[in-house]
Amino acid sequence: TGTSEKSSIHASELIAKYDKIVCSTAGVHPHNAKEWSKKTENTLSQLAQLPQVVAIGECGLDFDRNFSEQSRQIQVFEEQIKLAILHNKPLFLHERKAHAKLVQILQKYSSQYSKVCIH
Predict the structure, then answer these.
(1) pTM of the model
(2) First to last CA, the chain
(3) Exposure of 100 by Cβ count < 10 A (0-12 exposed, 13-18 middle, 19+ buried)?
(4) pLDDT tens, position by position, 16-53
(5) Which single residue of 13, 85, 103, 113 has CA 20 to 30 Å from 77?
(6) Do residues 40 and 81 lie in contact, with contact meaning Cβ atoms separated by under 8 Å?
C-alpha cells in the first residue's frame, strides 16, 4: 500500500518483481499530506497507469492525530480523488475522527468515481 510518494514507488518496484502474485496502491496517507507536491502528484499519476496499481490510496482524513494540518489533508485528499477519477481507479481510504468531512467530500465527487474501500 502506498502511503507516501516513496512507499508508492517502492510498492511499484515490488509489483514489477512479483507481478503475477501481488498488486499495489499509490497514494499519500493523511499523516503524510504535508509532503504533497506537484512532483508527488505527477509520480502517483504515472504509477496509476501501471495495471498492477489497483487503487489510489491510502488516502483520506485523520483528524485524530493531525500529523498534517486538517486543511492540508483535505486538499491532498481531493487531489487524490481527482487522480482516481482521471485514471478510473478505486479509492483506498483511511478515516479517523473525520467521518462527516470525509463523507461530505466523497459526496462532492460521487458521480465521478466508481468504487471505494474504507478502513
Answers:
(1) 0.93
(2) 13
(3) exposed
(4) 888 778 899 999 999 999 999 999 999 999 999 999 99
(5) 13
(6) no
The contacts of residue 103 (CB under 8 Å, 6+ apart) are none
Q: What percent of the chain has pLDDT over 70?
A: 100
Q: What is the pLDDT of residue 113?
A: 84
Cell digits for 86?
482521471
Mean per-residue pLDDT, 77-81:
98
* C-beta contacts of 95-98 below 8 A and 24+ residues apart: 95/60, 95/61, 95/62, 95/119, 96/61, 96/62, 96/63, 96/64, 96/65, 97/62, 97/63, 97/64, 98/60, 98/61, 98/62, 98/63, 98/64, 98/70, 98/73
The whole-angstrom separation of Cα 115 and Cα 42 is 22
Averaged pLDDT, 70-99: 97
Residue 85 burial by CB count (10 A; 0-12/13-18/19+): exposed, middle or buried?
middle
